[in-house]
Design brief:
Elements lengths: L16 H9 L6 E5 L5 E3 H17 L7 E5 L4 H12 L3 E5 L5 H10 L2 E6 L4 H7 L7 E4 L8 E2 L22 E7 L7 E6 H15 L6 E4 L4 H9 L3 E4 L5 H11 L3 E4 L1 H9 L13 E4 L6 H11 L5 E6 L3 E5 L12 E2 L4 E5 L13 E6 L11 H7 L6 E9 L5 E6 L4 E3 L2 E3 L1 H8 L5 E11 L3 E10 L7 H9 L12 E3 L13 H15 L3
Parallel strand pairs: 1-11, 3-4, 3-5, 5-6, 6-7, 10-11, 10-12, 12-13, 13-14, 24-25
Antiparallel strand pairs: 1-2, 8-9, 14-15, 15-16, 17-18, 18-19, 19-20, 21-22, 23-24
Helix pairs in contact: 2-3, 4-5, 6-7, 9-10
Length: 523
């Protein structure tokens, strides 16, 4: 008799994602759902359900309609999550926005997404006020205490509001979230994630990992889609507004989480900081690390310090959700694991598009119920993302071994991974070319143990013009968000290597950057 599949397509409910979430978490009752690490205020599951439902009523009371884009520009905050689920409950779309955006970046995303409402904090109001000039239709609300004439999130929770009404929608196509994904050719695109995709990916991960519902967790930064998964399991989530390593260690000792969801720069601190020995981290039994590759040296050091059998890693991207996890019992070093249930993958030759065999490298293509609906307002880029039969072309290069473990080895996309942030070289190149002394430029990532990669510019001066490295760095750094600064430096060269068609040969520039990094590395 054949083994029953762990998950069938008919097991994925076609429903509003928040309605499904609330149905699953009501029975957790007085169990703690979230802890605000700053105030130490706890929110139980019962309180969380009430806040979501009251916020949904409040959103409709202030005029939120189905399909409205609701922006959130804020550090990590428990009500960030409440906003997300309340928006989905009334058919609106959450639009997370990085607090690191410049005012010009913010203005662009607000226009591109036709944002109708924006939640923020008082510290970011000056940036919001500048960015929304000419966008007076956007209603701004504040988390925390009121500021001036602005309404607060708390005002939405007035029990006197009329009960919310969940509109009819098609969960397969109705967009629950517009998540940013950086491209190689310009500004980050808004990825359309449906209710169905979120529900499907949540169930896929639960089935794959089989998490204990008593799991405690600490997450920083907040990722609303990841936390949807944690809440389904009844986890207690400790939320830090911003990362500080010693505070992070203190919170682990205080709240004793069993699971940590981290990124490589924090793993580097765990591996090398002497502060680690000053705190009791013995509660941690599992670490999942994502967003960028993790070196063997750092992985081994963290495993030794925390006495862990392995560090769990996985694979995914905004456009396809989580697709691979190396869960318990099937860990393989340097692999991102095996496919989640209901997810298909094929690895194809970059030139021909034909599938390759085990052990052969090619571009990773993904298909499954969790994939996105494309890019908002960008039909051409959406067509380029998908094949005619629904495969998403990830742009990443990898291979699968004979046992079905995926190994990601490179990427076609030219993004620089600085810590957990993605930096598009084309954006920095565009800024650099505005400098009067620069004739040509190429930007690549220079390897760095702590950050992963540092943006580094290779510059060709205009004939007869002079500019120092310091001048060019300051020129760029004054115009970009912190993670995009040229921390890898500037080097002047005679010519940018290019293909016959004019494309920058970044491989050649990356070799220069790797050689410099190796030369600078301590012996």
């Amino acid at each position: 008799m054949s083994e029953k599949p762990p998950l069938r397509l008919e097991d994925i409910p076609v429903t509003n994602m928040t309605a499904y979430l609330l149905d699953k978490i009501r029975h957790f009752g007085d169990k703690v759902a979230m802890v605000d690490a700053t105030s130490e205020k706890t929110t139980t599951y019962s309180e969380l359900v009430t806040r979501i439902e009251r916020a949904a009523s409040g959103l409709q009371a202030i005029g939120v309609m189905k399909d409205d884009a609701i922006g959130v520009l804020s550090p990590n905050h428990p009500d960030y999550l409440v906003t997300f689920y309340a928006c989905a409950l009334v058919g609106a779309t959450l639009q997370p926005i990085s607090p690191m955006y410049t005012k010009d970046d913010l203005a662009k995303v607000l226009r591109d997404c036709n944002t109708k409402f924006l939640f923020t904090v008082s510290a970011l109001l000056p940036k919001v006020q500048e960015a929304t000039q000419g966008l007076e239709h956007i209603k701004v609300l504040l988390y925390g205490e009121a500021g001036g004439d602005y309404e607060t999130f708390e005002s939405l929770l007035d029990p006197g509001h009329a009960p919310y009404r969940t509109p009819e929608l098609d969960p397969r196509t109705s967009v629950a979230a517009l998540m940013s994904s950086s491209g190689t050719t310009g500004f980050p695109k808004a990825v359309c994630i449906s209710h169905y995709a979120i529900v499907a990916n949540t169930i896929q991960q639960i089935v794959k990992i089989k998490l204990n519902t008593n799991t405690s967790g600490m997450r920083n930064p907040v990722n609303a889609l990841a936390i949807a998964f944690a809440l389904f399991t009844g986890a207690r989530i400790v939320i830090m507004p911003r990362f500080d390593f010693e505070t992070f260690l203190r919170l682990i000792e205080k709240y004793k989480p069993t699971n940590l969801q981290l990124v490589p720069p924090i793993m580097v601190l765990l591996a090398k900081s002497p502060k680690v020995s000053e705190y009791d981290l013995s509660s941690v039994s599992q670490i999942a690390c994502g967003a960028a590759p993790l070196s063997k040296e750092i992985e081994d050091l963290v495993k030794e310090k925390l006495k862990l059998p392995c560090i769990f890693q996985g694979y995914g991207m905004t456009e396809v959700g989580v697709t691979h996890l190396n869960g318990r019992g099937e860990f393989r070093y340097k692999s991102v694991g095996k496919l989640l249930p209901l997810t298909e993958m094929k690895i194809v030759d970059v030139e021909t598009g034909k599938p390759v065999g085990p052990g052969q490298e090619g571009e990773i293509w993904i298909r499954g119920p969790q994939v996105c609906g494309g890019y908002l307002g960008l039909p051409e880029q959406t067509r380029e993302l998908f094949t005619n039969d629904g495969w998403v072309k990830t742009g990443d290069i990898g291979y699968e071994d004979e046992d079905g473990y995926l190994f990601v080895v490179d990427r076609l996309k030219e993004l620089i991974k600085y810590k957990a942030f993605q930096v598009a070289p084309a954006i920095l190149e565009d800024i650099l070319l505005r400098h009067d002394a620069i004739a040509d430029v190429g930007v690549v990532g220079m390897p760095d143990v702590e950050a992963g990669e540092l943006p580094r510019a290779y510059v060709v001066r205009k004939q007869g013009k002079e500019a120092s490295e310091e001048e060019i760095r300051k020129f760029v750094d004054a115009q970009v968000a912190p993670h995009m600064k040229l921390r890898g430096g500037v080097e002047f060269i005679q010519e940018i290597p290019r293909t016959a068609s004019g494309k920058i040969l970044r491989k050649s520039l990356r070799e220069l950057a790797r050689a410099l990094a190796a030369k600078q590395a301590p012996a």
